[in-house]
Amino acid sequence: MQNTRLNRLVDVLLARFLLWARNPWRRTSLIIIGFLLGYFLANAISTISGQKAFLDMTVSFLMLLLTEAVNWLVYARLRQSSLFSDTLSAIKVGFVYGLFVEAFKLGS
């Protein structure tokens, strides 16, 4: 890749972010925010698809494919955990948890 100003800016910003996220409390906060984001996405997607009452099976299949793709990305590669993989896994866990909570709400 060429050494342009934009490329150097992106490299510096990424390096600063990784240095910032090296702190354990900040890393934990990013993972918790990822979990809450996944929970919010599950509630939003299930509410929108339930209200629309159109393509329910297709949306469910797409959510299943998304969850399995995250599993493949996080667990198929035998490497050390990184901030990206931990946050992506937390989003997936929050997403699945949100879908279970929505199912329990609908079942009661």
From TrEMBL:
<dbReference type="Pfam" id="PF04483">
    <property type="entry name" value="DUF565"/>
</dbReference>
<dbReference type="InterPro" id="IPR007572">
    <property type="entry name" value="Uncharacterised_Ycf20"/>
</dbReference>
<feature type="transmembrane region" description="Helical">
    <location>
        <begin position="54"/>
        <end position="75"/>
    </location>
</feature>
<feature type="transmembrane region" description="Helical">
    <location>
        <begin position="30"/>
        <end position="48"/>
    </location>
</feature>
<protein>
    <submittedName>
        <fullName>DUF565 domain-containing protein</fullName>
    </submittedName>
</protein>
<comment type="similarity">
    <text>Belongs to the ycf20 family.</text>
</comment>
<keyword id="KW-1133">Transmembrane helix</keyword>
<keyword id="KW-0812">Transmembrane</keyword>
<keyword id="KW-0472">Membrane</keyword>
